[in-house]
Amino acid sequence: MAKKENKTKPTAVAPADFLAAVEDEKKRADGQWLMDTMQEITGEPPKMWGPSIIGFGTYHYVYESGREGDTMITGFSPRKAAHSIYLISGVEREADLLARLGKYKTGKSCLYIKRLSDVDTEVLKKLIKASVEKVKNKDIKY
Predict the structure, then answer these.
(1) Is it the case that residue 5 has pLDDT exceeding 70?
(2) What number of CA atoms fall less than 13 Å from residue 6's CA on the CB side?
């Protein structure tokens, strides 16, 4: 059986150029804050992962099934409906922080925030940092 490759991979597109093309001014400003904050937390430069995700660092994973690949340590995408913030360690693991965050929705490893003004950005920083630390320590729940 052929090895299945991830569709989302780093590209050569400049994240600043991608972000500058976001039409909504508030979403663009929120995206800049997220990019600066994630770079500060990870110590990694931003890279485009696929056509619409700005990611930071690289994490190699191996599932119990044997499937493996590389993904970002954290990242985000300024989508029309909401910012998708990728907390690779698993969003629900941080229930205490989520309780203080503000207005959001979640997926397994994704936090959806319509605008940063809807949340406590200091709590958001703590969420991102907690996830990054868990990923770097390989403390991930699939």
Answers:
(1) no
(2) 15
